């Protein structure tokens, strides 16, 4: 399958990966709507210290993480995927689908110049997109059936039109250039073709960082036992499949973030070793990760819509949130909420 060959080729360089278990569904977005319970629903993974105001790595390290690597206290989130049953009662049409597996790949480590900065946060994708024309191809948004033959006529960012024999899978790529002071980001480019880019393939003032890639699998066999032919009865909290996006706030221990770049000669997979342990041995926490702010916000779809209807933040604020270096992004990153 062509897609498999592409992914395999992309992993030929130095990379690591950590599996991060599901944490919660919640209508918050501390990057885009800090302090407000007005976001569409998101699926969260990682540190359970995340709340509506989270902005620092230190805050995330105060919690328990669902990451299999004990040194990773980062928080990752994406819009929740729903099964839509139009024949159900009005307030029961959308059933959230818990991802079967969330994997955070950190790639091109042998090309990175600096580790993720403390408090680094970034958004990839366009939450307002309704078609492929609204997307930045650098985001690499892809929906496909894991292990199945690719649909040659399907747009990469569209849902599969045939039942998946195993899992529905989606991919999302994040910018790999960043200004460590402003958190401005961009996707690396060939300087011979893109003016303003330097030999490190980044714009002025930016350095190469590890290239983060989300890989998410959903098992739909129980919720859709008869499968589908055509558009599946699925919807993201932000809209159709083209609005797929992802958010990340760095919570890796500094020693682990630095270890990713320790040996620039590496050109294969390797495990991260740091003070709390090696590889995917599991969380160092002695309790079960859980929502740190259960009294506020909601995990109910209908209630989230009611809360969104009363939001006070306008669209311009949503695309340029200003809090602790927030809102600094480069035009080549192309993200919107």
From TrEMBL:
<dbReference type="Pfam" id="PF09362">
    <property type="entry name" value="DUF1996"/>
</dbReference>
<feature type="region of interest" description="Disordered">
    <location>
        <begin position="310"/>
        <end position="337"/>
    </location>
</feature>
<dbReference type="InterPro" id="IPR018535">
    <property type="entry name" value="DUF1996"/>
</dbReference>
<protein>
    <recommendedName>
        <fullName>DUF1996 domain-containing protein</fullName>
    </recommendedName>
</protein>
<feature type="domain" description="DUF1996">
    <location>
        <begin position="29"/>
        <end position="252"/>
    </location>
</feature>
<feature type="compositionally biased region" description="Basic residues">
    <location>
        <begin position="323"/>
        <end position="337"/>
    </location>
</feature>
<feature type="compositionally biased region" description="Polar residues">
    <location>
        <begin position="311"/>
        <end position="320"/>
    </location>
</feature>
């Amino acid at each position: 399958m062509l897609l498999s060959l592409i992914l395999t080729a992309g992993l030929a360089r130095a990379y690591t990966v950590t599996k991060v278990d599901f944490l919660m569904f919640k209508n918050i977005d501390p990057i885009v709507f800090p302090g407000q319970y007005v976001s569409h629903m998101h699926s969260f993974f990682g540190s359970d210290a995340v709340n509506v105001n989270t902005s620092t790595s230190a805050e995330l390290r105060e919690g328990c993480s669902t990451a299999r690597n004990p040194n990773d206290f980062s928080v990752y989130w994406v819009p929740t995927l729903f099964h839509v049953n139009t024949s159900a009662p009005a307030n029961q049409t959308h059933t959230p689908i818990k991802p079967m597996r969330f994997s955070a790949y950190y790639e091109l480590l042998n090309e990175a110049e600096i580790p993720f900065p403390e408090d680094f946060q970034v958004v990839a994708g366009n939450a307002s997109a309704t078609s492929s024309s609204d997307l930045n191809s650098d985001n690499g948004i892809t929906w496909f059936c894991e292990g199945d033959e690719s649909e040659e006529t399907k747009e990469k960012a569209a849902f599969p039109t045939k039942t998946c024999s195993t899992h529905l899978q989606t991919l999302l790529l994040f910018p790999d250039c960043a200004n460590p002071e402003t958190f401005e980001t961009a996707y690396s480019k060939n300087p011979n073709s893109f003016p303003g880019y330097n030999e490190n393939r980044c714009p002025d003032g930016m350095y190469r960082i590890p290239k983060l890639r989300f890989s998410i699998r959903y098992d739909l066999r129980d919720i859709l036992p008869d499968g589908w032919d055509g558009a599946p009865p699925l919807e993201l909290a932000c809209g159709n499949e083209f609005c797929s996006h992802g958010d990340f706030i760095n919570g890796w221990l500094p020693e682990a973030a630095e270890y990713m770049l320790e040996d620039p000669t590496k050109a294969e997979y390797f495990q991260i070793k740091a003070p709390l342990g090696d590889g995917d041995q599991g969380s160092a926490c002695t309790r079960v990760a859980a929502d740190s702010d259960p009294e506020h916000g909601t995990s109910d779809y209908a209630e989230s819509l009611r809360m969104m209807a009363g939001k006070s933040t306008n669209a311009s604020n949503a695309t340029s949130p200003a809090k602790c270096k927030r809102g600094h992004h480069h035009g080549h990153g192309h993200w919107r909420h």
